[in-house]
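Risk register update: the risk of archive-format incompatibility is retired. Evidence:
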Amino acid sequence: METNQPADDHQDEVDRLVTAWRRELPDLDVSPFEVLSRISRLARHLDRARRLVFAAHDLETWEFDVLTALRRAGQPYELSPGRLLTQTLVTSGTMTNRIDRLAAKGLVERRPEPADRRGVRVRLTDVGQKRVDAALAGLLDHERALLAGLPDDDRTQLAALLRRLVMPFDEQT
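Archived output:
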């Protein structure tokens, strides 16, 4: 039985979980947990931290997602609802609801599609741009602080490894 367990004072919850499973089911290879359970736990921690950063800017995570998609589009910071669907991976009904709610808060506005008056474009308002820019700056400050303990080479290597792991999932969508 292979064990890469660190000393007790350097164990995390995944180390304890893996140790328990190896004790209970010694013939089962639980080594994938050493990577994927950590990624799962980290994702939950990051989601909580991001929600707190966004809340400080009076935004929900989904609002940030839509607003940043518009902001990344460049001047005039507008996209079709269909393009927003592609970027945020939600259904048409969900996107309509989100656009309605963002428009009610004055963060986006609907504009007629120039090429087809029946179509609609969603545009980031000045208020929406200021709000998303401030939230993005806050998020980046927070995430830089989280990564401060990793040397640049480790961050580069970690980013490359995670890219290799996530690419097959992204290619399916």
